[in-house]
Design a protein that fits this description.
There is one protein chain. The chain is of the alpha+beta class. It has a domain of 49 residues. The chain has two helices and five strands. A five-stranded antiparallel β-sheet has the order 4-3-2-1-5. The longest helix is centred in the middle third of the chain and has 37 residues. About 6% of the residues have low confidence.
């Protein structure tokens, strides 16, 4: 017997048809968590209030998760910067994308650009992915 996830409106909007949870952006997750916490505190039984230790633990976990997300964003930015800086060191050098089966592109790097999270080198009139470089000469 299969049981479909439901909420008060009758269906769970964050569940995919295959039963997996839909991904959401971190902003809505933060707001959802805070709304849930406020509603929990607002609707708690006055004769049996919510355990303070449990609430503090949830807040600490939420804070830790937010810090990890911020760190991930910072590391992603740093990785992109490092990739561009390494590629910029190739300006004025001769690079090649030749492989055993493809003659590729060869020439002097004149500029570096970043697009879609990838670093591209301008060689002559062509823009080539920096990860395709197979040979570097002075």
């Amino acid at each position: 017997m299969t049981i479909a996830p439901t909420n008060v409106s009758g269906s769970a909007t964050n569940i995919n048809p295959d039963g997996t949870v839909k991904s959401t952006n971190s902003f809505s997750d933060k707001n959802s968590f805070l709304l849930l916490l406020v509603n929990e505190l607002r609707n708690q039984d006055p004769t049996a209030p919510t355990d303070e230790k449990q609430t503090l633990s949830q807040l600490a976990q939420f804070s830790q998760l937010e810090q990890i997300q911020n760190l991930n964003t910072t590391l992603s930015s740093t990785a992109s910067f490092t990739q561009v800086a390494q590629s910029a060191a190739l300006i004025g050098k001769t690079v090649s994308t030749a492989t055993e089966t493809d003659p590729g592109v060869s020439g002097v790097v004149s500029s570096v650009s970043l697009s879609g999270g990838k670093t591209y080198l301008t060689v002559g009139t062509e823009s080539i992915d920096a990860s395709a470089i197979t040979n570097i000469k002075q």
